[in-house]
Write a structure and sequence with these properties.
alpha/beta, Rossmann fold, Glutathione S-transferase Yfyf (Class Pi), Chain A, domain 2, 6-stranded antiparallel β-sheet, 9 helices, 40% helix, 23% strand, globular
């Protein structure tokens, strides 16, 4: 668990320290006071990235670097990011080291913009799946990065009309695509094995929740089928100026008893599915990493009724949890265990 976090020149924090407790930590303050910024700092020292923006934007105005320091499971951790050199420096127990898999802390993040499945884009759903895979297998981030760079280069060639130079990029993009598809299908299979059980704790029914992966490409022998599509459709892609096929175009559909959730689900059922998905994420992360996940709730409780608040808190009672809110009563009225309140009232810079 986190014992504390110290922020230097991070967002609207010049130099601040927050001491945490085991279990529930409630971050309370008015809008614009820096509650989400504190969650972002916890995320950043755990994942070495931001869930909102690039690292440059995390640095306080008129400074060129931020420093985050913490103690997690009896280890001292410090992250320094310098905007001018674009470098990260990481210290474990005061010793400068390279960031490794052991330094990653599993995070389950609840954001308001992922709370209504009718509004969540396919890009957001793909990013959720890819991010879960990265937390389990950090090397997958390199695959995603290489795919994006390859896709960008191929699109440049299409826009310039240099179709004779496409073949090596087609081969590269197909190889990377196969790796992405294999990983996505594996993790979706694992989610589908667990999510219905989680959902039924909210609904007290025996409904079936599934994620379905949809692609314009036949998923069997994906790379070969993708290569055929790229070669057969390059004239159309040349006119449009971008690649029409590949993992960046695939969809992830949520099914409720084999029906698309967009068709008929109530707001409450919709929210229960998202909560179930996040609890399934927790279960998978903890199974794969052998670490307890850290929960970050960004203004979630204002969106939930009392029953759902109580149900989710019961399922994460052993996890260290950080909850932002403008109304502390929304949270504490549903708590049956001890909690720690962290008041924030900083000015937005």
């Amino acid at each position: 668990m986190f014992e504390y976090i110290k922020l230097n020149n991070f967002r609207n924090y010049q130099e601040d320290v927050f001491v945490f407790k085991k279990g529930i930590n409630i971050i309370i303050g008015p809008n614009g006071s820096g509650k989400t910024n504190l969650l972002e700092a916890i995320y950043c020292i755990s994942r070495f990235s931001s869930f909102r923006t690039k690292l440059d934007n995390l640095i306080r105005n008129k400074t060129n670097k931020f420093i985050l320091s913490t103690e997690y499971n009896n280890q001292q951790k410090t992250l320094i990011y310098n905007k001018e050199s674009k470098t990260k420096q990481y210290y474990r127990n005061q010793k400068k080291v390279s960031i490794s898999k052991q330094d990653q802390i599993p995070i389950v993040l609840f954001e308001p913009n992922f709370f209504n499945l009718n509004l969540v884009s396919n890009e957001q759903k793909r990013s959720f799946i890819d991010d879960l895979i990265i937390q389990i297998k950090p090397s997958y981030s390199k695959t995603i990065s290489q795919y994006k760079k390859t896709l960008l280069q191929r699109n440049k060639l299409l826009k310039k009309g240099q179709t004779k130079d496409l073949f090596p990029w087609n081969i590269k993009i197909c190889q990377l695509s196969q790796e992405i598809i294999n990983n996505r299908l594996d993790i979706i299979t694992e989610i589908n094995q667990k999510i219905s059980k989680r959902y039924n704790k909210f609904s007290n029914n025996f409904d079936k929740i599934n994620l379905k992966y949809k692609s314009l490409i036949n998923l069997e022998n994906y790379s070969s089928n993708l290569l055929k599509q790229l070669e057969n459709n390059f004239l159309q892609e040349k006119i449009i100026g971008h690649t029409l096929f590949g993992p960046h175009k695939d969809e992830i559909v949520f099914l409720f008893n084999n029906n698309n959730v967009k068709s008929f689900l109530s707001q409450g059922e919709n929210r229960s599915i998202v909560l179930s998905l996040k609890l399934t994420e927790k279960e998978i992360l903890e199974d794969k990493t052998n670490k307890l996940a850290i929960f970050l709730f960004d203004d979630l409780f204002s969106e939930l009724d009392g029953n759902r608040r109580t149900t989710i808190l019961k399922q994460i009672d052993i996890n260290q949890t950080f909850i932002t809110t403008t109304d502390v009563d929304l949270v504490i009225n549903n708590l049956q265990s001890k909690f720690n309140i962290l008041p924030i009232n900083k000015k937005k810079l």
